[in-house]
User: Which sequence fits this backbone?
């Protein structure tokens, strides 16, 4: 079925792109702009965006349900976020203040 009349994008095109993007990283957020970019198109009237979001949600949910069947592929998001936070955090203990320092 044709979803985007301006760019002639079908449901199948969108589903293929969503699966390809999720194959790269199963937990990344897929947004309509990413679909347009992957297909080399641009939103024009953007009347298709609500349908695009519905298809993305449906395909993502199905993808994750399929992943849940194989527990070895499930990535612990909390652990990944914690490691990202640790690697990017610059403040806190590196302020060179003694531990018993009090501002007031
Ligand atoms: S219908 Fe998709 S941009 Fe117009």
Assistant:
């Amino acid at each position: 079925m044709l979803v985007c009349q301006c760019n002639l994008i079908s449901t199948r095109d969108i589903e293929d792109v969503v699966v390809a993007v999720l194959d790269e990283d199963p937990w990344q957020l897929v947004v309509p702009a990413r679909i347009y970019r992957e297909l080399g198109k641009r939103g024009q009237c953007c009347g298709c965006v609500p349908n695009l979001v519905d298809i993305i949600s449906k395909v993502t949910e199905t993808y994750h349900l399929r992943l849940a069947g194989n527990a070895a592929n499930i990535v612990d998001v909390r652990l990944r976020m914690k490691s990202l936070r640790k690697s990017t955090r610059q403040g806190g203990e590196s302020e060179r203040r003694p531990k018993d320092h009090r501002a007031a």
Notes: Residues 49-68 form the longest helix (20 residues). The beta strands are 2-4, 9-10. Helices lie at 11-24, 32-39, 49-68, 77-88. Residues 19 and 59 are 7 Å apart (CA to CA).
